[in-house]
Amino acid sequence: FDPDGVAELVELFLPTLLSEAPLNIELTAAALGIPYVPKVRAVERLGDEGRYLGFFFKLCTPDQINDTTDALCYEELGSGSAGNSLKRLDFRIKEASDKGDGFWVEIESPELNPSDLDVSYRLHAGEPWQSFRSLGTDGTLHVDHPALYFPGAYDVFFRIRDKNRPGLWSEVRSTHVLIDKAAPVLKAWRQGNEVRWHVQDDATAAERIKIKAEVLYAGERRVHDFALREMLEVHPQASVRLWAMDAKGHVSTAVFLDGQPLEVAAGQSTVAYGCQSHGPQALSFLFLMLLLMPLVRISLRKTTT
User: Alpha-carbon torsion 30, 33, 35, 38, what sign?
Assistant: First the structure.
């Protein structure tokens, strides 16, 4: 128990409570390190015997501060503002794809040097903003969030501020990110003169999967580079090798389809190398020759005698 501390609290809060004047506590976004302005909603006595003093705050976003219909959060933003206003800071967001694992972004502002720039972000509209943090020396930021460790498509929201004026923040901007660390799985089959396929991927929709094909027929090799395709029309005897590529550039294992053998229906003639045959007629001729061979031998013996 600290009597001096209690005396200080009474001296600080009692005049305000008795006068019913607004409670003014200097909690700013710069002090908290998050893009919110705390607004006191109520001060109440708490506990069964009312021995505790409770303060209830609402954390107002810059959008709420600009909203004239929000009676609690709205502020008249002008040159004499308390330092929590929005500033039209322009900035650009670009995914840094050469940083390895994780989601990295490159952020640039024409008005600020990277060393003077702080960034806050969040993934969903209802979740709290992450605390402001500085960019790396190369102007990039690692967006560390538990959800980004799982495959899927996300919209990430960003806001920047000037380190020299930490109460001034930019408006919100978002970027779309696709988290996908595995290659697609490709299955393919023949359907008449067509080659069709099915692709499964963790994050890329089937209509965004690109297909590459290598076709070999009659000694000629033809390559169809990665493109959006629904099917591929080839000769039934052509051999085909296929690959699938997702939106992140991951390429599947190749799938090989061998050429189909040429089917010959009964009664139809086929062309063979070196001679020409005519189906059942050729078999009848061979059978007749086998029957006549003994007669030919007997005829030769009589002639010799």
Answer: negative
Name beta bridge partners: 155: 176
Strand partners, 60: 37
Write the pLDDT tens digit of every residue in 253-275: 999 998 876 554 444 433 333 33
**Residue 45, helix vs strand vs coil:** strand
Cα(92)–Cα(158) distance, integer angstroms: 10
Selected residue with higher pLDDT from 84 and 163 = 163
Tell me which residue has tokens 């099915």: 198
Q: Computed over its alpha carbons, how large is the radius of gyration of the chain?
A: 40
DSSP sequence for 72-109: TT----STT--S--B-----EEEE-TTS-SS-EEEEEB
**For residue 157, what are the β-bridge partners?**
122, 174
Quick one: tokens of 176? 């779309």
163-188 burial code (b ≥16 CB/10 A, e <16): eeebbbbbebeebebbbbeebbebeb
Model confidence over 199-233: pLDDT tens digits? 998 888 888 999 999 999 988 999 999 999 999 99
- Rounded to the nearest angstrom, the gap between the alpha carbon of residue 166 and the centroid of all alpha carbons in its chain is 32
How far, in Å, CA of 282 to CA of 288, rounded? 10
Of 228 and 32, more confident: 228
- Please tell me whether the overall predicted TM-score, pTM, comes out greater than 0.85 for this model: no
How many residues does the structure list for the chain? 305
The pair of three-digit structure tokens given for residue 21, joined into one six-digit string: 């004047």
Contact 46, 52 (CB under 8 A): yes
State which H helix or E strand residue 13 sits in.
helix 3-19
Residue 262 backbone phi and psi in degrees, to 5: -75, 125
Residue 294: which residues within 8 A CB-CB, separation 6 or more? none
2/224: higher pLDDT: 224
CA 135 to chain centre: 23
